[in-house]
From TrEMBL, chain A:
Pfam families: CDC50. The chain crosses the membrane at residues 44-70, 291-313. It is found in: Apical cell membrane; Cytoplasmic vesicle, Secretory vesicle membrane; Golgi apparatus; Membrane. Signal peptide: none annotated. This is Cell cycle control protein. The gene is TMEM30A. Residues 1-28 are annotated as: Disordered. InterPro entries: CDC50/LEM3_fam (IPR005045).
TrEMBL record, chain B:
One of its GO terms (molecular function) is magnesium ion binding. This is Phospholipid-transporting ATPase. Mg(2+) binds at residues 421, 423, 1008, 1012. Component of a P4-ATPase flippase complex which consists of a catalytic alpha subunit ATP10A and an accessory beta subunit TMEM30A. Keywords: ATP-binding, Cell membrane, Endoplasmic reticulum, Lipid transport, Magnesium, Membrane, Metal-binding, Nucleotide-binding, Phosphoprotein, Translocase, Transmembrane, Transmembrane helix, Transport. Residues 1034-1274 form the P-type ATPase C-terminal domain. Catalytic component of P4-ATPase flippase complex, which catalyzes the hydrolysis of ATP coupled to the transport of phosphatidylcholine (PC) from the outer to the inner leaflet of the plasma membrane. Initiates inward plasma membrane bending and recruitment of Bin/amphiphysin/Rvs (BAR) domain-containing proteins involved in membrane tubulation and cell trafficking. Facilitates ITGB1/beta1 integrin endocytosis, delaying cell adhesion and cell spreading on extracellular matrix. Has low flippase activity toward glucosylceramide (GlcCer). Residues 1-37, 453-482, 629-670 are annotated as: Disordered. The gene is ATP10A. Residues 1-20 have a biased composition (Basic residues). It is a multi-pass membrane protein. The keyword RNA-binding does not apply. Residues 54-103 form the P-type ATPase N-terminal domain. Residues 467-482 have a biased composition (Low complexity).
Amino acid sequence: MAMNYNAKDEVDGGPPGAPGGTTKTRRPDNTAFKQQRLPAWQPFLTAGTVLPTFFIIGLIFIPIGIGIFVTSNNIREIEGNVFMYYGLSNFYQNHRRYVKSRDDSQLNGDRSALLNPSKECEPYRRNEDKPIAPCGAIANSMFNDTLELFLVANESDPTLTLIPLKRKGIAWWTDKNVKFRNPPGTESLKERFKDTTNPVNWLKPVYELDPEDEDNNGFINEDFIVWMRTAALPTFRKLYRLIERKNDLHPTLPAGRYYLNITYNYPVHSFDGRKRMILSTVSWMGGKNPFLGIAYITIGSISFLLGVVLLVINHKYRNSNNTADITI
Amino acid sequence: PPRRKQPRRAGWRARGRTRTVRSNLLPPPSAEDSVAGATKGERLQRLGCVQHVADNRLKTTKYTLLSFLPKNLFEQFHRLANVYFVFIALLNFVPAVNAFQPGLALAPVLFILAVTAFKDLWEDYSRYRSDHEINHLGCLVFSREEKKYVNRFWKEIHVGDFVRLRCNEIIPADILLLSSSDPDGLCHIETANLDGETNLKRRQVVRGFSELVSEFNPLTFTSVIECEKPNNDLTRFRGCIIHDNGKKAGLYKENLLLRGCTIRNTEAVVGIVIYAGHETKALLNNSGPRYKRSQLERQMNCDVLWCVLLLVCMSLFSAVGHGLWMQRYQDKKALFDVPESDGSSLSPVTAAVYSFLTMIIVLQVLIPISLYVSIEIVKVCQVYFINQDIELYDEETDSQLQCRALNITEDLGQIQYIFSDKTGTLTENKMVFRRCTVSGIEYSHDANAQRLARYQEADSEEEEVPRGGSSQRGSIGSHQSIRILHRSQSTKSYWRTGSRKTLGSLLDPTHHVYPFSPQEKDITPDPKLLEKVNECDKYLAISRHQEHPLAQLSPELSDVFDFFIALTICNTVVVTSPDQPRQKASHGVPPRAHDALALLRSPSVVSLPEGEHGSLPFRELLSGLRKMQQGASHRERLGQPTPAIASNGYSSPADSWEPEYPQEPQPKQELRFEAESPDEAALVYAAKAYNCALVDRLHDQVSVELPHLGRLTFELLHTLGFDSIRKRMSVVIRHPLTDEINVYTKGADSVVMDLLLPYDARGQHQNKIRSKTQNYLNLYAMEGLRTLCIAKRVLSKEEYACWLQSHLEAESSVDNREELLFQSAIRLETNLHLLGATGIEDRLQDGVPETITKLRQAGLQIWVLTGDKQETAINIAYACKLLDHDEEVITLNAESQEACAALLDQCLHHVQSRGSYTPEKTESCVNVGFSSLYLASATSTVSGPSPSLVIDGRSLAYALDKNLEDKFLFLAKQCRSVLCCRSTPLQKSMVVKLVRSKLKAMTLAIGDGANDVSMIQVADVGVGISGQEGMQAVMASDFAVPRFRYLERLLIVHGHWCYSRLANMVLYFFYKNTMFVGLLFWFQFYCGFSASAMIDQWYLIFFNLLFSSLPQLVTGVLDKNVPAHVLLLKPQLYKSGQNREEYRPRAFWLNMVDAAFQSLICFFIPYLAYYDSDVDMFTWGTPITAIALFTFLLHLGIETKTWTWLNWTACVFSIFLFFTVALIYNASCATCYPPSNPYWTMQALLGDPVFYLICLIAPITALLPRWVLEFVSDFSTHTAAILLPKDQQGAQHSGHKCTIERGHRAGGPGGSGPRVLQTRRGCFGSMS
């Protein structure tokens, strides 16, 4: 008997508690979470919340739209700093193989990448056994027309006044200072790029992009940096120069005749492309684009209208049937 | 060897599926000379070639450390989606087509694989731990070296080992019982771990070993056991044991102790291991968890294929576009065209092919990689919430709903057909004795009925049941208290933790001792009947010593006496008293010897000289027979009288038992009856109320105590157990008062009535009794009572001897023993004398009618499949509102296949034509039609809107025939409810299968007993009721509920929610991915179809996985499109799930169109806003990503009907996560992430007002249409649900709805009264 008892203890382990009463029940906890009774808000169900939302959207969107529209249209006045863009159309900078064709390490001044560029740059990786700097299709296809703007003094006097175009300050600060760096060293840029060759389409090597300004030469040339930021859509513009405002009293570009001198290097006819030059100022929301303003006004109006229509329907329904007012 | 001489008749041997087991202690026959002191290893090696040495190690783990990775990956790649994603990821390694960095592209699929692998690993580890625990349990195994029993681990047991088990130990393997401490060679086991039944089963020592006087010595065991190969049939074991001398003895399941059971009430047993480890029946039965694929998942897989098709189309379109584009620009040497690395340019065709592959990679998001994982997560959470629902918790049994299948929660919301068992499912299966009729006189027990009504009122308080005897334990002697401890607490709790998985006993077995409530125990006796019983008792007490004590009683009183004796002993109820272990104590003197001693001592032996002498020749006859039959050495298995104990039955209790059993339960002590079925217990309690108490049952005797007569001990000669074919059970006893051999039979009235003594002229009185009883039986059935007939047969000695001979033959036959025993039972149970009948009430469970009404309103069609008789079933059906008195009941009882076919045609015709006829006309037409053909077998009355169908088992068998099943189904479809009576378990499952396959309907089967298991397994959703009849139904089920009424909430609330949540989530998944991919696709028009992506690859890959996954999971788990109380109030809302309204092809395509529209908006607003600007690709793509995220969240916001703080948190978290990750990512490295190189992009964007402006307008614009649509449709549907007229709610088949209702109205409301009567008359008409 004792043995039996031991055997039982051995297996059972715990004390032989009474089976009924004291044992804890399996009743689930009566908490709001477990019983799925969390306080809930039903925002999109009742007419009481949906209809006001439509009106609120309408009331908010229409003023915003008008504001944007006005701002956008005001850009026309050439006051303040004027931005000079070149525009290209039908140029697929977003093509998959094109976008990949660059070596960020090389552009960041990495020595080994400079001499041995990434495979992604193929076939613009090496030329005649010399590494190309900067390598890749993007760099190779860099826009290289030169634009010069002159102010014609007046009808009778064809004297051309060159408008000073600022070459710097057109690229993102982080690009210029973080992403793009010349190869390190104290010797001249030419020395630093000595074992490399220029991209096949380029007329001059990378260290001669802006021979006048050491801070705008080589990889940190801002024209180059701007080009390397590949455009999202096949029709795009890129910032070319800044025309700074000199005097608060006068417009930056006074009314008059202007003369644009283009040094034509860049072929676009082959792919049915077009080139443009755009002069524009910017507002707080960027360049001129009436779309957003119109969109806001339109959507705001539609929303408002829907609100009215639904209100009418709802009102009719309610009148025909009182039980529709249910709370669920 | 003697074996060869045996004729190989038996199937199990003829097919060569046998196993031979020898003792491991013996040297193998081939190597007689082997060394005595062989080491264990050697021994095993030797035995390995001789016999199958399976060890008892349990291994349920799937993996080992080494095999885990390959095996798990192999398993995971069985899921097609995984293969697809890996393929795509690998495609990235091909430079010409790669879209992303190859390593990055692998990340999501590796993540998904890793999560799944981790889950599998964890599961496997817990299996390993539980295996380890079980493998290291100890038990006593006989050691050859030490010549005694030593402790070994379970895993070290081998086939052929001798194991010694003590009381309350768990049986480690399937063991053949060779020796028991019980003097009768018996052993009790509890099989709760196997089948949940807690009543003790009796096992018997193998014939030829039970009479060994000395203790069994394994060393002398030289016999060879030949038995079946391991199989999973728990109810069968066949084999034979061949002794050295060539003698053979059969082995049956009574000899086998099954692994997982517990030894009870037996001090120690010894046996030889026959099957070990995974060959044991317990483990062969453990088939592991069920995997069902839900309806919704099937539909979803179909839509995934659509997505694949869409993906291919988009890619093809893009490829063609790219080819054309290449053709256009290539010749022109465009600056932006990048030639191959060798300078040559790609041909347009090659470029198109590359583009196609790249597009597939870029657009892979369309196939939602996280969909499957998310669905699994959501389902697990849904299951958690269902389990936690307090409304589904049953106070009474302390059990809550259990979800056993994790992946079909949403099927609960789509059920169309419910197949329900009746007994125990609709009813309590707590049998209460209600009325009885004895000798043709009815005793209505009115007081009983009143008391029951009172109980029903004060239900919950009264149902506190004293469980076990723990509270009364204090006062008894230490010797016995130990035993009580063993019995009442036992080792169940241990098994719950240890082997739950291996043995499949998922429920706590402690709750399944029938908790008899006061209703069952307290029966108020009918005063008249009680008086008669007392009269008998008093009279017999006086006349007991006369020669024919019963002869002096009037036939009626004699019947009354026999009736109660039959109630008391014609069963397998075992008596326990709280203070007394249910056991024949093993006192120093074995009971038989002590009986004999007592007889010698007792003077009362002398007082019964007639009996003693009268039985002597008979006993000699018996023993002669036995010698003929068997070798002289074999004693009978089931305790047939041997000369030594035959006198047992004559001993009067007062003198022979009292001195030896001082602790004998006193009449005033409470006795507990443990019965295999509640009916039996109810009858025993009823008899006890009439002071005819069962006080003791041993395997060869039953004692009954009466107030005046004292204890009567009946010698139990045979018990012919109940089986579902005979539908009755019998006991053969020797009556202590008359010394006659009596057969008491108790069984279904339909069967027993046919076995009565044939009519004859002289038995006029008997005939009258018989017809009266039949009338009362009909009355009982109409009240919904379960009826049983009690009958008796007096056997003359010669008859008995004659029968016994054949019976012994049957018992000892090795081969088709079961069938012979069946035949033998049939030979005995004839020419019965009817004593009376009982009506037992099986109360409806609480809330059943309400639940059925609600489920009906929810559009569910309810079929009841029961084994009960037609009348009882119909009345229960009326009681639970399944049948309505206003409605027509078509009764289908056919005697033959042809009749059934014709009937079906008639009914079909009738049902179809009812729309065009007025009800009166239809009625007459049908009646004529039926009566002309099968008046006796078929009746139909027309009374209401939609008919109900009642069909009996035999007709069902015909109707399920291939030729008729379509007609039957068509008819059944028209009917409001279908009631199948007298159906077998197989028929039940066939019906379910038929409906499921032919009607393509979602089916739910609910039941509580073993007979429902097949039905539960076949149905789409199986629900088990953890009720009175063990755990088999629960084990087979997907969901286990404590009561039928919980089905309402489970389906109408949780089913609706689960379906709606999951359907919406799946749709949302498709929407989300399509919309995201749409953005990329539109971009292709502006990048020369070059498969370029303006969205950074990191966002592209992690967007689905990280940024937008959490809110939809929260919504998928918590959203409630309609609150619970409204669902319960308006069950018809359930129909949306049945009709798959939320996730149907239309919804899918509408969603896809919406996704396309939204992606257009989300693409073109930024496009136009940034048109002709100096924006670069990723500074433009990032706002699009942000817009997409906002749109997704807003869309989800519209879809989410209830916003809790969790939804808010998830949304805010998603946005926060996106911006945080983007800011960190964009600031982390200036050159690291080619080609996008998004350094400082996000930071720059945050300073750009346009970014905010487009982020505000685009999502709102994109969602405006959906918002309006949703608002309008919500508004109208909710209104419609409220307005839905009540009489339309129940109608299921819309096509017939109108006509039915029109007919109903035309018929008018007045006719319901008489029609009810007609219906009932119809039932009886078919019987008489």
